[in-house]
């Protein structure tokens, strides 16, 4: 393991994501802390390899935008995945959700160092997500897996509610609305904010569910003990329609490039709502709000093509 640290450099996608935020949207102490963490990441990984007696295979690429995953083997040769995330509390919440699910529909946690933002997870097939399937089949499998995750949260859980989470997003969205670069999308921003106000005025579901929070086809991987398992939750508690929004948005490039894109987007909303017994209008509303929020955030960091694609999609709905 003497040369393991040489193989623990962060993947380029993570470097670009944190570098862009540090220079653009987050030119503050938070952004600077992210960049310091990025520089320290090989050392943090090496420390946990030694502490937990792990042998690294390779860093998973292209990886995510807020964490690094190292494919490893435990002391008995069992494969696993070492996930290192920003020490901002997100990994602790992820661990709480994964522990509550206990492998039902989601990757199983093996060990955790919550203060350092490090998890040891069972190894899935990281190169095989639901996006490897035809879209219709992928949506069916995604819906079936998501149903297994929708359970009541544990008493005393640490998760934020959808209303509070989206209130913070809405505050930032209002601030960005005033920027000169947002002039062309202010009408769409206003509609998204109005939709959110109506949605949070009524809870939707009679009782809150534990939600994945970032559920899309790319976050569902092939497994050995189960065909498909979810990874990377950003858990919240609230109504199920919020959790479905990113499934509506999946494969956005293909959806928008096809003839009849508006009708296809509305059909996807209707199909997912019906298959999971979710109100269609609420699903549409949350999809619009989340797409506008994500699109405006992309514009704010200079990622105009990605932002415009999301806003075009929101406009279709």
UniProtKB/TrEMBL annotation:
Q: GO molecular function terms here? A: aminoglycoside 6-kinase activity
> Where exactly are the transmembrane stretches of this chain?
none
Presence of the UniProt keyword Cell cycle in the record: no
The cross-references to Gene3D superfamilies, in alphabetical order and at most eight, read:
Transferase(Phosphotransferase) domain 1
Q: What is its EC number?
A: 2.7.1.72
On whether Transferase is a keyword of this UniProt record, the answer is: yes
Q: Which domain of life is it from?
A: Bacteria
Q: Name one Pfam family in it.
A: APH_6_hur
User: Region annotation Disordered: residue ranges?
Assistant: 1-29
Keyword list, A-Z? Transferase
Q: What is this protein called?
A: Streptomycin 6-kinase
Q: From which source organism is this entry?
A: Streptomyces syringium
């Amino acid at each position: 393991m003497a040369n393991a640290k040489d193989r623990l450099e962060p993947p380029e996608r993570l470097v670009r994501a944190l570098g862009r935020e540090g220079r653009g949207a987050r030119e503050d102490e938070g952004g600077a802390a992210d960049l310091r963490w990025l520089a320290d990441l090989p050392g943090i990984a090496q420390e946990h390899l030694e502490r937990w007696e792990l042998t690294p295979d390779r860093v998973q690429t292209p990886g995510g935008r807020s964490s690094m995953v190292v494919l490893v083997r435990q002391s008995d040769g069992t494969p696993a995945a070492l996930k290192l995330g920003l020490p901002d509390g997100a990994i602790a919440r992820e661990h709480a959700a994964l522990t509550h699910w206990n492998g039902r529909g989601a990757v199983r946690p093996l060990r955790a160092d919550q203060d350092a933002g490090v998890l040891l997870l069972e190894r899935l097939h990281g190169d095989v997500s639901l996006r490897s399937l035809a879209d219709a089949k992928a949506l069916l499998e995604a819906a079936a897996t998501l149903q297994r995750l929708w359970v009541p949260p544990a008493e005393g859980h640490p998760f934020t509610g959808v209303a509070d989470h989206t209130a913070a997003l809405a505050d930032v969205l209002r601030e960005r609305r005033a920027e000169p670069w947002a002039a062309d999308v202010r009408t769409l921003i206003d509609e998204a904010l109005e939709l959110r106000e109506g949605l949070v005025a009524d809870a939707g579901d009679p009782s809150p569910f534990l939600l994945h929070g970032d559920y899309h086809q790319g976050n569902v991987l092939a497994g050995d003990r189960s065909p498909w398992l979810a990874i990377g939750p950003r858990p919240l508690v609230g109504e199920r329609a919020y959790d479905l929004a990113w499934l509506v948005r999946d494969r956005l490039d293909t959806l928008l490039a096809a003839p009849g894109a508006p009708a296809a987007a509305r059909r996807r909303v209707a199909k997912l709502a019906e298959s999971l017994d979710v109100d269609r209008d609420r699903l549409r509303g949350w999809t619009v709000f989340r797409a506008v929020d994500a699109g405006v955030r992309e514009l704010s960091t200079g990622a105009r093509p990605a932002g415009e694609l999301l806003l075009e999609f929101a406009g279709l709905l």
